[in-house]
Write a structure and sequence with these properties.
Layout (H helix, E strand, L loop, with lengths): L2 H5 L6 H15 L6 H25 L2 H23 L6 E3 L2 E3 L9 E4 L7 E4 L1
Helix pairs in contact: 2-3, 2-4, 3-4
Length: 123
């Protein structure tokens, strides 16, 4: 294999390609918006809608096609929020959007002085 071909990731199916795009999106989701980032983001959306969606349809997996549409909607909403100057609260996990809207509780876990993995939590 040539050095140029080793540089690029070669996913074997649509799910693997979606996981790569999800990982990349989660890395830059909180980054400030620049022209380069916007072009990169639009390229990922285009890849989802063209190559990866065609591969999912070829595999005969309608759930995967729906997940691709959900991912595209999430990524387009990111574009709209960033262009208006609003922060993006959320993270993509399992090709869905998870938001941090719920309350977070701090916990202190300590070991009970017995054998085994007995743990108690002090709230």
């Amino acid at each position: 294999m040539k050095k140029n071909q080793q540089r690029y990731l070669q996913p074997h199916n649509a799910e693997e390609a979606m996981e790569i795009i999800q990982r990349l999106f989660n890395k830059y989701r909180n980054a400030p918006l620049t022209n380069e980032l916007l072009a990169y983001h639009n390229n990922l959306i285009y890849r989802l809608q063209s190559d990866i969606k065609a591969a999912a349809q070829k595999e005969g997996n309608p759930e995967r096609v729906q997940e691709i549409d959900q991912m595209t909607d999430i990524m387009r909403s990111w574009t709209n929020l960033k262009l208006t100057g609003h922060p993006f609260h959320g993270k993509m996990r399992h090709f869905r959007l998870l938001t941090n809207d719920g309350p977070r509780f701090k916990r202190r876990v300590h070991r009970i002085h017995q054998f085994g993995n007995h743990r108690a939590s002090r709230h």
